[in-house]
Known about the structure:
Shape: globular
CATH topology: Lipocalin
CATH class: Mainly Beta
Amino acid sequence: MLTRPVAVLLLVAGVTGVVSARPTDEPPKEPPKKTTAELLIGTWRQVKEGKHELPAEGPLGVFLEFADRGKLTIRIMDGRNRPPIVGRYRLDGNHLRLSAEKTFDQDAIERTLLIRTLTEAELVYETEKGKEDEEVVTAKYRRVTEKSQLR
Length: 151
């Protein structure tokens, strides 16, 4: 037989459980949308440049890695064991500004890109028109989701 305090405690717990388990009339909240800066963070593999499709898998490719605080790493995997290019990036609206210092085998990089598409899976940008002889080039990247895609 239950004592009165235990019975009251069980009754309160049961009522609380029923009230808290009741469905709400509100639809489930969508997670907040990520900002452009949050979507950009990660590693991206180039899959298209202009009209040229590039391999989406395999040992060769161009990879961009955007990290916190504006750190940029570019890896060009072409079988020549190149060191990564380390630089900085800055996001200004849909303009992405890339820079890297000159190294013994790489010229300095100062580039502004116009982001056309940025989702969890895809990054598409256009290069801005530079010198008269430079064309605007569109490049497409896919997010690298597994470390095995970097080999």
